[in-house]
Input
Amino acid sequence: MDFKYVPTTCPYCGTGCGFNLVVADGKVVGVQPWQRNPVNEGKLCPKGTYAWEFINHPDRLTKPLIKKDGKFVEATWDEAYKLIAQKFKSYKGDEIQCLSSARVSNEENYLMNKFARAVLKTPNIDHCARLCHASTVVGLAGTFGSGAMTNSIEDIGESKCVFVLGSNTFENHPLIGRQIMLAKKRGGKVIVADPRLTPTAKQADLFMQFHSGTDVAILNGLMQYIIKNGWENKDFIKNRTKDFEKLKEVVMKPDYALDKVSKISGIPEDQLKTAAEWIAKAESSNVLYSMGITQHTTGVDNVKSVANLQMLTGHLGKRGGGVNALRGQNNVQGACDMGALPNVYSGYQAVINPDFQKKMKEAWGVSDIAAGRVGYTVTEMVNVLADTPGKLKCLYIMGENPMISDPDLHHVEKGLKNAEFIVVQDIFLTETAQLADVVLPAACYAEKDGTQTSTERRVQKWRKAQDPPGEAKPDWQIICELAKVMGFEKQFPFKSPEEIFTEVAKVTPSYGGMDYVRLEKPEALHWPCPAKDHPGTPILHKEKFAHPDGLGVFTPIEFKYPAEVPDNEFPIILTTGRCIWHWHTGSMTRRSPDLAREEPTGWVEINDDDAKEWGIKDKEMIKAVTRRGEITIGARVTKGIKRGEVFIPFHFVECAANVLTNNALDPTAKIPEFKACALRIEKIKEA
Ligand SMILES: Nc1nc2c(c(=O)[nH]1)N[C@H]1C(S)=C(S)[C@@H](COP(=O)(O)OP(=O)(O)OC[C@H]3O[C@@H](n4cnc5c(=O)[nH]c(N)nc54)[C@H](O)[C@@H]3O)O[C@H]1N2
Ligand SMILES: Nc1nc2c(c(=O)[nH]1)N[C@H]1C(S)=C(S)[C@@H](COP(=O)(O)OP(=O)(O)OC[C@H]3O[C@@H](n4cnc5c(=O)[nH]c(N)nc54)[C@H](O)[C@@H]3O)O[C@H]1N2
Ligand code: SF4
Ligand SMILES: [Mo]
Output
């Protein structure tokens, strides 16, 4: 047998671990460690270990499908392209929405951004970052002038105090979790604050359990206590920041005294005191946060509060410090960098800026790029479809599954059914693809070259290990061929991902110094990397922040409750999230036998005292009901969750958490409140 090892980057989380795909007789048959990879040094979590199992699954899409009389019929690529081109041309730009994907490469996201704007003439392009770190991008851009993770992954292991807030790092970024353990081994303290005693929380020196949605109160309380004790970093505040007095006016209010904060959050006062002291007095202290902070109607407020704490204590621009927003999907950082967002072209160049409009028109060789209006976000798209039928008519969805991942699924379904024409490009026939008019079979990560950008802004390579199944094609090739049929061959002449990357580097300043030769080495490059002789930038804001005056901005934030709070009818808080074995909507992990076996279906975590009071036994099937809908799901009774709160993972279509969730949005970031709504549990009556 002919064996080959192909080094590539894991297609799951934003950590960006490297591994080797093992290829036998032209097919991927396993994963083997890549010892010299600097991110994970040969170690992998279960998803990485089994990231080969779905690749040759019999359910892979192998031919284009066209829906006729309600049924999918196999078609040739020519037939599919002709139909799509004819339909796309029949709509005005404003009536079309594109969804790009954090699962595909930078090159493919860049092309989707170009296709939407230059070919379809629509400003409506977005992707799942909206459901994820939209609050980070807005919040950190406001405070630091740049919306990315400030430090590198390796750096976390050097911290003297790691404050994990709203991140279940051990399950969701396991190889970053490894750095937390390294920090601990080297004498650092670990604080975890979470409503649940997660595997991450179990490793903490101090675990603070609190009610979802009370983060701002907690952070303001910590800051008040630090200032009261004179532990703030006065030099840093004076030299590197502005508006400290404004911050003080709010955080010093009696509302944020620790006894009050303790009542709001449910965290004992002495724990808050210990946390404040450890954070302020440590030589270096970082915050690791993720969805617990961002997925709220106050997501931007939460992010800015985290930034306030880190500026107050001066833990920025140095090793072991930072605001480390752990980006979720393998390439969500890259999809944002590449302009798969409604308000910016690649490199965060604003679409409303005439200079950038001109630059892009010239670079792309087109006279119209739907400029001047910011398009719809994913969340606005669903609302427009559902609530004002006829305004949006046509969707082009690449590598997203909103029929499980968006909040309030009944509303999403109503919206998607209002669309006249939907194209879905995926590797499996997902719940969303089933609603499409045309389905295009895409190649997966193992079947194409390309680059992806991890949470630490490291731009790494995917390397092709096998051919795609049947007639499936890489997303970049599909977009180029479609552009050609639409009459834009000149603008999409690309024969390889490398050619696309060359254009990316030309129009995107932070990627300007990168090329495929430089990215070939295992350590790759961190952006910003503006010139060929620039070494890349692992730590941001070392000397100054990215605002024109170089100063970080303190933003006073008042605490607000979530959009929906418990009442008599719905007395329990519902929070949602993930488990280590599964990935989002399960399209890949539920088709990986070694992962699927571990958690074959969903569950609801209920505190054991609550369960006793409500008369619910472990494994009992119950009904979970909110104002949006209801599901039937098995109970998992545990000591590990705060009383009055339950947790449901959102991976499982048969008991989909998002039937229940609230689509109330953060006013600026437009991220939904996945992390807190009000719920009732009903016993199922025996027949
Ligand atoms: N195994 C696995 N790994 C993944 C993913 C996956 O689907 N599966 N998805 C990836 C993606 S895209 C993302 S964005 C990341 C997400 O990574 P995480 O943010 O770590 O994941 P979640 O489970 O959504 O939520 C994190 C924690 O927030 C807590 N929480 C709930 N409510 C609140 C609150 O109000 N405040 C605070 N501070 N915490 C709260 C939850 O109890 C949970 O422990 O994971 C990435 N990694
Ligand atoms: N209740 C609740 N809901 C949530 C969250 C939560 O915490 N709670 N978290 C939210 C977050 S943070 C996120 S990021 C979203 C994720 O939401 P989605 O992005 O919708 O979820 P995925 O299942 O990752 O969908 C990716 C799709 O891409 C396909 N795919 C994989 N590789 C390729 C490829 O190479 N090409 C193409 N064309 N397709 C490919 C997969 O089969 C899959 O269908 O979910 C959000 N929804
Ligand atoms: S930690 Fe993330 S990138 Fe690393 S192997 Fe696990 S899923 Fe893949
Ligand atoms: Mo995410």
Observations:
- The CA atoms of residues 510 and 528 lie 4 Å apart.
